[in-house]
Amino acid sequence: QAQTKFTKKELQSLYRGFKSECPSGRVDEETFTLIYAQFFPQGDASAYAHFLFDAFDADGSGALCFEDFVGGLSVLLRGTVQEKLNWAFNLYDINKDGCITKEEMLEIMKSIYDMMGRCTLPALRDSAPAEHVELFFQKMDRNGDGVVTFEEFLETCQQVRRLGGFGATS
After folding, report:
1. Which residues lie closer than 8 Å to 53 by C-beta, 6 or more apart?
2. pLDDT(98) > 50
3. All residues at 6 or more sequence positions from 101 whose CB lies less than 8 Å from its CB, including other chains
């Protein structure tokens, strides 16, 4: 409870759910993917589940324990803006080298589009993930060096937040 922003009652409820899905107390990536895929039956969630699993697996052990799971949830649901941005950056920085490349972002975008499925309306063009990446880099890559550092990511997100969202013009 001291390490999260959940109450004792919330943690007990989360633990019961975790133990019912994962009686061993640990979730490997395959099981995590199967559970996550249930939320997106219209698409293929396996690639995005892999990236999500890596983001939750803070210690890189290859398995999620309850502490990994609830720690990630606490940040996502109750964390400060800074904590959420750190978590999101970590998700996109696939090789954990401190910057996001277009290739990393394209992998993430493709996985999101695959997860959403081909039944999305209006129908998405095959070029949509790459177009999304280009827009992301136009906004985020402030010095034009082809990578987005955490500082650029943070600065842009904070500016967007002040302006009221990505739809606002700067």
Report:
1. 29, 32, 33, 64
2. yes
3. 146, 147
pLDDT, residue 129, reads 86
State the virtual CA torsion across 5, 153, 36, 80 in degrees, nearest 10: 10
- Residue 163: both structure tokens together: 């302006």
Residue 170 pLDDT > 50, yes or no?
A: no
Q: How confident is the model at residue 15 (pLDDT cuts 50, 70, 90)?
A: very high
Respond yes or no on whether the N-terminal peptide bond of residue 41 is cis (omega within 30° of 0): no
Least confident of 56-70, 96-110, 129-143, 154-168: 154-168
Contact 89, 153 (CB under 8 A): yes
pLDDT higher than 50, residue 63: yes
Tell me the C-alpha distance between 147 and 145, whole Å. Answer: 6
Residue ranges of domains in the chain, CATH in brackets: 9-79 (1.10.238.10), 81-164 (1.10.238.10)
